[in-house]
Each structure stands twice: as structure tokens, then as C-alpha cells.
Amino acid sequence: MGKESGGSSPSKPNRRRGKGKPSNRGKELKWIPLGGMGEIGKNISALQYGDEMIVIDCGLKFPEEDMLGIDLLIPDVSFLEQNRGKIRGIFITHGHEDHIGGLPYVLPKLDVPVYATRLTIGLIKNKLAEVCPRYKPVFHEIGAGDTVDLGSFSVRAIAVCHSIPDALAYGIRTPAGVVLHTGDFKLDAQPIDGRTTDYGAFAELGREGVLLMLSDSTNVEREGFTQSERTVGRTFEQLFRLHKDKRIVIATFASNLHRAQQVFNIAMRYNRKVALVGRSMIAYVDLARKLGYVSAPDDLFIPAQEADGMQPNRVVVLTTGSQGEPFSGLVLMSKGEHRQIKLGNRDLVVISATPIPGNEKLVSRTINMLFSCGCEVVYERDQAIHVSGHASREELKMMISLVNPRCFVPVHGEYRHQVRHAQLARDLGVPAKGVFVMSNGDVLSLSQGGKGSVEGRVQAGTIMVDGLAVGEFQGSLLKERRELAQDGILTIAVALGPDGSVRGVDMDSRGFLHRQDAKDLYGELERAVVKALEAPMGDDAMRTAIRKSAREVLSRYTKGYPAIVPLLVRQG
Amino acid sequence: MGKESGGSSPSKPNRRRGKGKPSNRGKELKWIPLGGMGEIGKNISALQYGDEMIVIDCGLKFPEEDMLGIDLLIPDVSFLEQNRGKIRGIFITHGHEDHIGGLPYVLPKLDVPVYATRLTIGLIKNKLAEVCPRYKPVFHEIGAGDTVDLGSFSVRAIAVCHSIPDALAYGIRTPAGVVLHTGDFKLDAQPIDGRTTDYGAFAELGREGVLLMLSDSTNVEREGFTQSERTVGRTFEQLFRLHKDKRIVIATFASNLHRAQQVFNIAMRYNRKVALVGRSMIAYVDLARKLGYVSAPDDLFIPAQEADGMQPNRVVVLTTGSQGEPFSGLVLMSKGEHRQIKLGNRDLVVISATPIPGNEKLVSRTINMLFSCGCEVVYERDQAIHVSGHASREELKMMISLVNPRCFVPVHGEYRHQVRHAQLARDLGVPAKGVFVMSNGDVLSLSQGGKGSVEGRVQAGTIMVDGLAVGEFQGSLLKERRELAQDGILTIAVALGPDGSVRGVDMDSRGFLHRQDAKDLYGELERAVVKALEAPMGDDAMRTAIRKSAREVLSRYTKGYPAIVPLLVRQG
């Protein structure tokens, strides 16, 4: 399998199960994705040569709207736990949640060293401090151009541009050949920090010969080139020039520190102070300034509570909430619920982002609320207030041509992105039998000769994290929550005497007609239950009788179909 | 109020409450929206002159994702019920759900005659047959150009183009002046049925002088002109030409009968049979053919079960599911769960629609599933496979210029659409004090002189319809459902002896850790509850004690926060 013909989609995980086990022909190179295939999120994969393994990234994913009460999703790494002894280290490409967010849950189990750039390490440390403050892993700071030799692997860190600073691709030399993982990238010719994607390094590897290329598929559906982050700065500049009288509120991703830097630069030129709003915005900027990724004088910043007191045209508010996140700075402001900042007709609000799929309604609601505050709002796609951090088709083509690999696997994409990126690679001359659309848990085996084949599967999947301890949470509970959410619940408790006779009944409902609103219904329910239990019977029979009789009564009163929970309380 | 400065958003309904009551200066013209302000959905408004009233449209709206278990939303029409005697009739602009969907719930209460075009009446009858088959209202069929005189109102039906045939605007003469309601419209110069928007009628009213204009705001954010429905036909034609070998599956809105007609025409040209899939697709096409809105020979159609048996290039499947609706034809096919049609690499699937806000993820999932079936899929915005049924900015400008009203109210839009449409009207010379951004329930009073003012409010709002009888359902239950959905529920039933002493305890959980998975926790819960109830106390005190002691135990075992429901069962 592997070619999309036989490919399987995230929602058909079993389609290719049991088609052979991972083969074991000794010293063979294997690449094993445990997340990030057929999904944009929880990126993680392992590269194995003989008894040695390295892991690349360890991300999280945010739950679908029907995953009620779930906070986040992390990859199932039992395969890595089983091979703990083999793992030499985890290499992180950059500091976005979908690449580092799984670490606080996974790293303590594996306890292997982490290799990443300074900023990425700083962000990982912040996350660990939140979730498992006591755990202190070993970090090795690396920078673009560095090479790390770990047993059979020689890992070269390569600079790439992305929507967060200090992002890396990895060129990994192994005895079987070179593996290139692009990480998330774009080819921004004039990045804000001057750190361009290192074409040279990619070309060099290309000349040397790359056995396997793993490339970012996020924007394969977008024609042309992704615009430079600089274009956003130009738009901001115009807005500052046009709205000299107004206070300017800019909402964007806290992790997009290049954009923050541009806001700071422009603010200084226009003699405005900057108020940072939103926990993560403050945290990212603090860290980035401490580590030297963002340069701005201390006196540029004012505390949020001072912003309302100042002349509108002397202030810029930089806030979170560009995705309409319920408790983010911008959303609280839009509802008039923000403690420090009240919006009004003196404000120009710029939403410097496009909605991530699934957030469209949240963003749309926020925009409506902002208008209702009397603000002017800039939010349209066509106004160049946001650019993506991912390469578009022309850039993806360029990268494939530079690297010219023997085998190609589209990563970091939903199924349709994988399929179209695979097609792109074939169009550019990568041999069809070397192009693989993979699913999480597939094992890609590569021979020295450059032949690749997906030969088996290892355990892979999603672990839901909610209030309960990680892992404890089962899907069955989700199903119950969905039922409760649909129709509510009706609990019927029956007290039984030692002889098993009914001594009393009490009922309660949640999310379903309450007793005080439907006295007749509840009266009849009680009578029906008592009647149903007249004859002596076992506990299970009783529960069934209670459900059956109650359902029968309900059906006559309403179309509602609540979960019915019978409780039998025996005399102790 | 009314100008957006003082405007209120859907989520701030109370903001202007109590600013004066509806004034009662005898024979005054009033326009009162009860739905469709600050929302795209459940359109309904009333026009009142003295003791006479007419109603325009009566739509429904689909629930937000957090309205758990709710099927649909309808407008609160208590104001109309109170004024039942005054209502001369309901005029419907066209047959879309957001304009007729409320009728089965509202019409029986008002029991007034309905005026609409033939197709619209047919669609209304189908809806009534589903919900209240016994109720038979009085229908008056009207057509474009007809004028209906009802007391002080003389209502002229005006042809407009939209994404469903036989749509109308209404020009309503009253003693106080002319009111123009555009309905949903676009200015398609070459509509499929040749029935163009009747510019002449609008111009004529404009010359005569229009007191109040109510205009469709849906696409006010879109620059330029909305493309003709014909462009979609051209794209289809190309796809048929390019994919002579494939079976073609087209998913679109069942109500877009012009599109269906184009599919039928092209299918005939390319000698393909048509299989209709999806309950509503079949119902709409049947009705439209019966009433003569769609022309296609009987032998063009084949039953869905024959489609898989035929040569792929001899078949077109026209199906529902363009919005990824869970049980629609396309989604069942994409999951391989459709009884009659199996998709594969011989299929070209065209999704002839753009996702309605909120449906993006459903559509995206469907596309991934289709790719995983091996289909070729055409879905991109830039491929001219769909056009909107609503006028874009240039068309809206043209309409305002034609009509040149004294007062203007943007209708059929979210708050930001209203604000921007209002701005557009002012830019085109409508006096600022005559432009109103209204909320549902606002009362706009108009004097002969052409002065307008929003002077009060009547009751308006949303009624949730779920399995329970309409109206019965309270928001408080929704809140409970959300809590249940978040953390699940833990029920603790205690049997009490006549002396109030605890005789037994039983517990059950849904959507939260089950007993068999957490024996210690449940054991400790039971002990804690028994202990908490040792001292004699009243029922409320007992319930509190149970909650308190259980919460305390839970907090030590998990971060989960289920609803805790204590039940006290007394000996009868």
C-alpha cells in the first residue's frame, strides 16, 4: 500500500491493519510516523536504523467540537515506550503547539534528551513548568548549521523560515542514506530576522543524493508563493498612517514574534506605546525579549491598565484572540468584559490572522461584537493583514526540485493534502513507486538501493486528555457525554426492602424536563415504575423493567429521549 | 436609536431595552422585524398601519453547535399572536428554509392567509405536511407583476433572481408611503429561467418615491458583482467534456433548481442518465417538475440502485451533501455507507457549493473521505463551480440608486453586514438620519413626511425546537446539557429509614469515570457520604452534605468535575 490508491484516511484506521508485521531484516532504515499523517496536528515520527532511533517533534492537537470536555489530544507513543532503550534523542523543528505540545505528557515517559534551538527550548520549558513542574529533562541547544552525531545518525540542523522564529529542517545522514525532514517552512526571501531558508544546504543535500524527503503539505492547495511576513508590516504601516487619531488594537498569534517585532518597530516610528494583552502574548514576548529574538526598549511598553487612560493615538494594543478563543484578550474586549481595556469608536481593531478551520464561527461572532462596540474592524482576507507560515505550491515544487529525493512522503497535512502533494512530487519526477501517502503507525522501510516500501504497522493513535489523568479517559465516556448532551438524563432511584419490595422512589433529571415543569409526567412515571416492580425479580430484570416502563410513559408525553438511569438502593 | 453608533448586537439584546415603549400616535406606519436582524436566518417582519398588519416571511434558523440537542430555531411571534386580529396576511418572498421554515410552527397559531408564488406554496405545503399534516391554511397564489390590495396595503409582487426559482420582492403602497422589501436577490443578467430581476419595477417605485427600503445584506462584504448562475453551467460543461470516461457526481443544494436544470441539460447533451440521491433532492426535483419549473424527460432519470451497474460515462449522480451534512447522500457515499452508490477511482465528484459558515469542518472531512475513496474531487472556490444567490456590493449599490429611498434598513445579515450595508446607503446619499441598523423587536415608526425613528420595542426572540413540544424547552436545560457534556454526571442515591437514618447508598455515573474503573474512588465516596449524613438534618441539608463530601473525595482523585446529583429515597 502507500500510494494513495491504497491509502487510508484518518477515519478508516483499520482499513489496512494486519497486512503483515513490521519486517525485521536487521540493519534497515525505517521511518515511522506516529502523528501528523492525515491530520494537521500532533506531529511526531521516529527514524530507526538497526537498534538506534531518533524522534522528530512531539506535538498536540486540539479536539474536534464533538469531543465533549476533552482539553487536548496527544499521540499514542506506546511504540516509543516499548523501544525506549533505543531512542537517542528527540529533535524538535520549532516551537508551535503541534510540534512541542505533546512533550509534557510524553517526555517524562521516555526521558531522553531533547535537541532544539534556544527559543524552542525556552517554549518547551514553559510548557513543562505548567504541566509537570518537577520533571527536568536534558536539553541540548542547537542552531542552524550545527551537526549532531548520535550513533548511526548525523543530524544537521538547517535554517527555515516559518511563522515562529528559529525554525529548523533536519538533514539526517544514516548508513542507508540521507533523510530530509523540512519541518514547517516557507521561502520568505526577506524574513524579518534576516534568517532566510538555507537553500544552499538543501541544494547540497540534493547533490549528495537524498534517499527520503518528508515535506510540509499544509498549503499544497494554494497556488503560487506565500507572501513575505514583511507585507503584513507594510499593511500595518499604512493603517498607522491612515488612522493617526485612533487607538490601534492588533490581534494575532502570540507565537508569531516576527509580527510582534514589526508592531513594535512601527509603534516606535509613530510614537505609540504598546500594551500587551493576553497571558500567552505576554509570555511569548517576555521570553523572546529575554532570549534576544525580539528587540524593543522597556519604555516602549505600558501596563494594560494604563492604555485606556492615554491618548488613543499614543497607544497600540497587541493582543491574543485572533481565532475568537472564548477567554482571549480580544474576545473579552469585544464583550466589554475585559478588566483593563474598553473598546469604543476611537478604536481600530485589526484581526491579523485567518480563521483556522473550525474557528470560522468564533471569529465571525467576535467581529460582530467588535462592530457592536462601535470599533472600526479590519479583517478581510484581501487586505494583506496576514500571511501564512507555510509554503504554497510553487515553493513546494522548488523544494522538491532542489532536493530531488528518491523517495517522498508528504507530511503535516490532511489526507487530501497528502494526496495532492504526492501528485506534485510525481509530476516533478519523483518515481511513482517512491511516493507514499502514509497513515499514522505505518512503517516505511528503505533499502540502501533506495527502494522503499510500507511493510507493516506499529501501534499509533490518539490519546484524549481531559480533567481526568491522561489516558484514563475512554472513548465510551465520550459516547455517553454525547447522549447526555443530546437529550439529557433521567435518574430513577428505588429503595428496596430486605425482601426486595419497593419501599420508595425518587427521580431527578438534568438537561430534560424538570419535575416542577411536568408534575403529571413524573407522577405517572413513579406509578409505572412501582407497578413494573410488583413481581419479585433479580436486579438486572428490575433495571430493565424500570427503563422499559419509564420509556413507555415518556413516549406518550414527549419526543425527548433522555438516558434513563435506574438506581437500586438496598437496605444495608 | 438605530444608527450603528447606538446599535446593539444579537448578543447584547438588553442594551437598549426600556428606551421608551412603542408609541401609539394612531395612524402611523410601523415596520417591526421579529427575526433576521443581526442574523442570517428566521426572517420575519411585520408592517403595521393603524389597525392593519401584514407579515413578510416566516423562516427558521439552524442551531449553533453549542445548542445541544436542539433541532431548529424559530422566531418568538408573541407580538403577532397578540395582534392576530390585525393581520391581513403573510407574504412570502421565496421558498428557502430561512423564509418559510417557521410557518409550520407559527401559521397554525395565527391562522391567516398566505400569499406566495406557486413553487413557494408547493414547498410550504410539503413542510406543513411533515410537521402539522392536519392543518390546512388558506393560500393565495401570486406571480411577479400581480398586485394584492388588502385594506390600507397594496402589495405588488416584483420578480427578483435568487438561488431558488420564482423569488419575489414586494413593493407595498400604504397611505404613509411606499415600503420596498427586496427579499433575497441578485442581478443575474442571464438567469437560467430567463426571469430577470425586474429593474423597471424598482425604477418606477424609485421615481414615485420610496419611504422605506429593506434590502438583503448577505454579501455586502463581497466586492463587485455576483456571477451568473450560468457560469456554473459552463464549468459543468467543461468538466463533462474533460472527463468523458468518468462517472460524474455533483453535490449541491437541493433547492437550487436552476443548477439542477443545468445538470439535466448537460446530461442530455452528453448522453448521460441522471440518478437523484438524497431525500430532499428527490422531493425538490419532483415538485419542480410537477409544477413546471424544471423541464426534463422522464427517461432522463434512473433509480439510484441502477447507477453502479451502468457504464460510468453514461451516468450523472445529482446528490445532497454539499455542506457535509452527516446523513446526506454525498457523506454516506464518502464513507462507503450508501446503500446504492459506491464511489471509487472511476468517479469525479464536484462539490458545487461553498461551506456555509460553521460547516467548514464537515465539508473538509467529506473531501478527505472522498479522496480516500480514490475519487477525483473538484471543490475549490477558484474553480467557478458555485455562485452565490445574493447580490454583491456593486449590485447592492445599483439597487439603492434605483430605489433612492428616504429611509433605509439593512436586513438579512449579521450585525457587521448591517453596519456595512448602512454605510453603503449613506455613501450613496441616503440621509444618515434615515438609515437604521435595527435589532429584532425594534419598532421603526415612519411619518408621512418621511421621518423615521426607532421608538420602542416589542417582544422578540428565539424559540428552540427540540424533541420536546415547541416552546416547552428552556434555556436552563441547555445549560445543564452543556455541563453534562463537559464533565458528565455522578448520581448518589441514598435510602433513608423512617427515622431519617441512612439505610443504603447506590451510585451511578455517565460520561465520568465508571465504578468498575475506579473502585477505590467509589468505595471512598460511599463511606464519605454515609459519614456526612450521620447527624440528623433536613433534606436540603442532606443534599448539600452529600454534594460537599463527594466533591471533597473527587478532588483528591481527579481533576474531573461532574455534576453531582443526590437522590433521597424515603420509605413509602
What is the compact description of this entry?
Chains A, B: Homodimer, may be a subunit of the RNA degradosome. Chain A is of the alpha/beta class and 572 residues long.
What labels would you give this structure?
homodimer, 572 residues, alpha/beta, Metallo-beta-lactamase, Chain A, Rossmann fold, Ubiquitin-like (UB roll), 3 domains, 8-stranded mixed β-sheet, 6-stranded mixed β-sheet, 16 helices, disordered N terminus
SSE blueprint and pairings:
The structure is a homodimer of 572-residue chains.
Chain A: E1 29-35, E2 44-49, E3 52-56, E4 72-75, H1 78-82, E5 87-91, H2 97-100, H3 103-110, E6 114-116, H4 118-131, E7 139-141, E8 147-150, E9 153-160, E10 167-174, E11 177-181, H5 199-208, E12 212-216, H6 229-242, E13 247-251, H7 257-269, E14 273-277, H8 279-290, H9 304-307, E15 315-319, H10 329-334, E16 347-351, H11 360-372, E17 376-378, H12 393-403, E18 407-411, H13 415-427, E19 442-446, E20 452-457, E21 462-465, H14 475-487, E22 489-496, E23 502-510, H15 519-532, H16 539-557, E24 563-570
Helix pairs in contact in A: 5-12, 6-7, 15-16
